[in-house]
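WARN no homologs supplied; continuing
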Amino acid sequence: MTSAPTTLARTATVRRVSPEDAARMRALRLEMLADAPLAFLETVAEAAARPHADYAARIAAVSTGPGTAQFVADPGGRFVGHAGGTVAPGEPGLTVIYAVYLTPTWRGSGLLADLVEEVAAWSRACGRPELMLEVVVGNDRAYRAYQRLGFVDTGVRVPHPKIPTLRELQMRRPA
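OK structure emitted
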């Protein structure tokens, strides 16, 4: 079910995480939360307090199988990007993309498309032909980036899971 890694001109490889990636994934997770706190479902403090063994177990769990997968952009040192996918409860043909992030210096490099395409390839291999993601209303940069990747605003708005005063919009596209 794993597709071949994609290598970028800037020498980052997009691939599914492996159990050995736990420490680098933890470092990226802390960066993600510090840089874009509204986009993710935990705080930096919560993530920093989690023991390494918890990260290791999570990464091992998402490194194989059809239920949930995480993909990273690896230039050979610190990870510079991430995107996850998981089966949608109640919609067996749908993969929900989650925790999409690019280190600021890699934004605009085409790496977002490569991360999303790896999730899409995995989704198709698992028999799920559609992708969905949610974006905080007002995050126009992310909204436009996902539009460029073929996602369409469905018109569905849902409450932000952590901040009730915010709304998220749903976007979908074929995998």
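The radius of gyration is 15 Å.
OK
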